């Protein structure tokens, strides 16, 4: 614990960012483009789903909620990364705790939501006759609220524990954003900090493995039903409804597993940064592409609204 002679650091300095102005600008431009694309892409998906009645189904409801969470998930880290690339590479202790909380709460909410989406696909394929009577709008809202409650309450104990730790040594954080393990490594070395690292490892492992197990069970049932479909066209249509969800699941959970299921294994700063960029930036970047470009109904809805916008602006020009 903290002794009277120890002074707790009030800010951390990110040491994983390049200090060369040239390299910083090179990193800043694509990262800014990616962030704008993520926000705009997800806002387009949310808007299209809301404006089209035929998309008011459980699957698209969950997709729009996922898009909403993705915006906040990336906003928790990317704007600060952009700021660090061109300005001060520091963050206050309270700012660091807030960033960890928002990042993990939205991330855990996404994990829970992807699990709920697997359950939705399981019912749609394995029990199509009872699907709409089971997946009612009320149940969809209840599942979404449960995912958010789980996400926003699960990180609280970890954040509270970390906020009580003394940080009296180096304040150089070897990461591109505040995360549990990099921050815990800066705590004054004592038994409490070591136990905390082990507890965080176990908590993350339980969270990830529970979600993976539930999703795996859902897809075992889905595959079993698809294999019993006689026509190749029927099998293709049934599986096509799961491709987007399965792709997002593999992208997100693959990188998250590399980061949080390592236990005693350690990576170099380069690989730590690369893996963090994968699940914090690249995975959210690909999600709007997967859910729009690979989804026929959303593509058609976007084209319809783009056509309506052209007609509207065309009439506006004529009137003026």
Secondary structure elements and their pairing?
Layout: E1 11-14, H1 21-51, H2 58-75, H3 78-86, E2 90-92, H4 93-126, H5 131-134, H6 137-153, H7 156-163, E3 172-173, H8 180-184, H9 191-227, H10 232-260, H11 269-293, H12 296-319
Parallel strand pairs: 1-3
Antiparallel strand pairs: 1-2
How would you portray this structure in words?
The protein has 320 residues and is an all-alpha fold. It is 75% helix and 3% strand. It has 12 helices and 3 strands. The chain has helices at 21-51, 58-75, 78-86, 93-126, 131-134, 137-153, 156-163, 180-184, 191-227, 232-260, 269-293, 296-319; strands at residues 11-14, 90-92, 172-173. A 3-stranded mixed beta sheet has the order 2-1-3. The longest helix has 37 residues, at 191-227. It is globular, with a radius of gyration of 22 Å. The termini are far apart. The model has no long low-confidence stretch (mean pLDDT 84). It is a multi-pass membrane protein. One of its GO terms (cellular component) is plasma membrane.
Key features?
transmembrane helix; 12 helices; single chain; glycoprotein; Rhopdopsin 7-helix transmembrane proteins; mainly alpha; 75% helix; 320 residues; Olfactory_GPCR1; 3-stranded mixed beta sheet
Give the terminus-to-terminus CA distance.
72 Å
Helix content: over 70%
CATH superfamily heading: Rhodopsin 7-helix transmembrane proteins
Q: How many DSSP H or I helices?
A: 12
Shape from CA axes? globular
Query: Averaging pLDDT over every residue, what do you get?
Result: 84
Question: Gyration radius, to the nearest Å?
Answer: 22 Å
Q: What is the correct CATH architecture? A: Up-down Bundle
| SSE string, helices as H and strands as E | EHHHEHHHHEHHHHH
Number of structural domains: 1
**Highest CATH level, the class:** Mainly Alpha
Largest sheet, if any? 3 strands, mixed
Give the strand order of the largest sheet, numbering strands 1, 2, ... along the chain.
2-1-3
Say what the CATH topology is: Rhopdopsin 7-helix transmembrane proteins
Q: State the low-pLDDT regions, or none.
A: none
Quaternary structure classification: single chain
Number of strands: 3
Strand content: under 5%
**Structural class estimated from helices and strands:** mainly alpha
